[in-house]
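Translate sequence into structure tokens.
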Amino acid sequence: MNEKEFNRPKIKKALPVMVHFEKEDHAPEEFLKLIKSANYNIEESVRSKLSKIDAKTFLGKGLVEQTYVLSKELTVDVVLINKNISASQQRNLRKSLKCDVLDWTGLILEIFSLRARSFEGRMQVELAQLRYLSTRLIRGWTHLERQKGGHGLRGGPGETQLEIDRRLLTIRIRQVKERLVKIKKQRELSGGARRRGGIPTVALVGYTNAGKSTLFNKLTNHQVYAADQLFATLDTTTRLLSTEGSEKIVVSDTVGFIKNLPPTLVAAFRATLEETAQAQLLLHVVDISDSAHLEQMEEVEKVLDQIGAAKIPTIIVYNKIDNCVNKPAIIDRNANGDIHSVGISAVSGQGLDELITTIEEKISGKKQFLTLRLEASQGKLRSLLYDWRAVSDETVLENGDFLIRLGLTRKELRILGQKSGLEDFAL
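Result follows.
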């Protein structure tokens, strides 16, 4: 995948309408970044403070008129609202403005449809779009005239267009779900083999555009697409950590999060995000140069809680320290002496060696590595070691014996000694 694929010609003109309420954090920059990521042209914008929500249009009569005049003057294709609006409000705005209207969720879904490259990613985005669209199928659409009953129907009125739309949506949602279930099973087979092989996984999580993909490339000597735009990467990529250590560690790059992440997207990507919940360690990548990084961290933690990953051991990775005046420490430890955070620059490489050392320390739990030769008859002991995910490498000898590379903590070594009856393990 190259950069040209993402830099598509900006054909559509958009008019952003950015509203906020009193005592509400107002961050128009993020909304403008989303619009840029969707490849829209922007010449002007409408900004206003609302005292209350208008039931019909969300914006209110005066703001709708202002938006209409400006949209016609600029000949825009779409009006973009920085809030989530109801289906009826969206329909009424389209009638009043005489152009397409997208809200916060609709815009994010459009970006996701542009970014998804893998078959699974496209299926996940389509499912989210279908679920979103299903909430837009309401009474009052202009095309809801009566349709004739199809072949095989015995008289009576046929289906309304609304009923047809709902039925077709239901069928397509079921089809997409079935395909995603098959893909999930295939991924579980490969992931299960990795886990049975005792290979630990480190998952990169964080707010969109925090620098996860750039860090992933540095850690794995791989090249996934990375750009200074929101949701540049959607498809999960997994590679081995590039390290001189003796233990294999898998690193997984995941989709970025954002505030008010549409529930339809969380639901659609749940199968992919579940891989995050199965990781042994999370690297929470934070753009420390962003003034809103504390709020962004909270949003990420919310999603991690939703997918059952909140209790996984986590290292806070403060990225882009080269853009900070008050740089965080490269290594920051908590009261117990454990590493809590690491400051890095994924671009320059500053702090990466310390981060890799920290990852190895967290994953290994200060493990001791040894090579054990097992006879073919010691299958139960071999199975036990695999159940413990202690095996990093295995060689089958000519006589059928196994030469196994193990990584075990002192506690695990003592337990192994007790279970196997080999006191040599009781270190």
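Note: The two ends are 51 Å apart (CA to CA).
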